[in-house]
Specification:
By secondary structure, the protein is an alpha/beta fold. It contains seven helices and seven strands; from the N terminus they run αβααβαβαβββααβ. Helix content is 33%, strand content 14%. The strands form two sheets. Strands 3-2-1-5-6 form a five-stranded mixed β-sheet, with helices on both faces.
Length: 203
């Protein structure tokens, strides 16, 4: 009887560990499912941003880097240091903005303070921006060139913790664009969405 009870407790414990591992680790290493009603936006396609984002394109011929972020998504929170580093390094050559995909969004001031951004960054909360860029998960980086065409939409790197500097996909894409390299061959891992699925940012 004791043996059966011990085996039962071990089984319950193993199942519990498996559930926790799935909830907080394994499911985020799998590609995000593509929504049934997804409208693909190919690289090189014109991006028609909604009126809420019109001010992001002044006449200075700078590319635009959009950071799609959701505070409820674990993957999203890990890559803010990488976004901040890009802003610090390339803020004079490109424009940056944050698109917050959450009904309980941070204000621009709260994001500025919480993530110690080097200077005020425009913060938008409009799901139509994600649709116009073909984004269906967070976190995602989108780079739009000076002609308002989609240059890059993908991951910061291959690690969901956004800490693998050797595969800095978003940084490499931005640097290439700033050098007028429009013929980059992006790693397939860069373009396959991982993370939390929109609109609820749940897996």
């Amino acid at each position: 009887m004791r043996k059966k009870l011990a085996i039962s407790w071990l089984l319950v414990l193993a199942i519990g560990v498996g559930v926790i591992f799935w909830r907080y680790e394994w499911k985020y290493s799998l590609p995000t499912p593509v929504p049934d009603n997804y409208h693909a936006v190919g690289l090189g396609s014109p991006v028609r941003l909604p009126s809420t984002a019109a001010s992001l394109f002044p006449t200075d011929n700078k590319p635009l880097f959009l950071h799609f972020f959701n505070p409820d998504c674990p993957c999203s929170r890990f890559n803010m240091p990488q976004f901040r580093a890009l802003v610090q390094q390339y803020g004079k050559q490109a424009r940056f903005a944050i698109v917050v995909m959450s009904p309980d969004a941070f204000t621009a001031e709260e994001l500025q303070t919480k993530f110690n951004l080097p200077y005020p960054i425009p913060v938008l909360n409009d799901s139509a921006i994600a649709a116009s860029c073909g984004v269906y998960s967070t976190p995602q980086a989108v780079i739009i060139d000076k002609d308002q065409k989609l240059f890059y939409r993908g991951n910061y790197n291959r690690s969901r913790y956004c800490s693998d500097e050797k595969t800095g996909f978003a940084r490499l894409a931005l640097v290439g664009l700033l050098k007028n390299n429009y013929s980059q061959n992006f790693d397939p891992l860069a373009l396959k969405a991982y993370g939390c699925q929109l609109p609820t940012c749940n897996r």
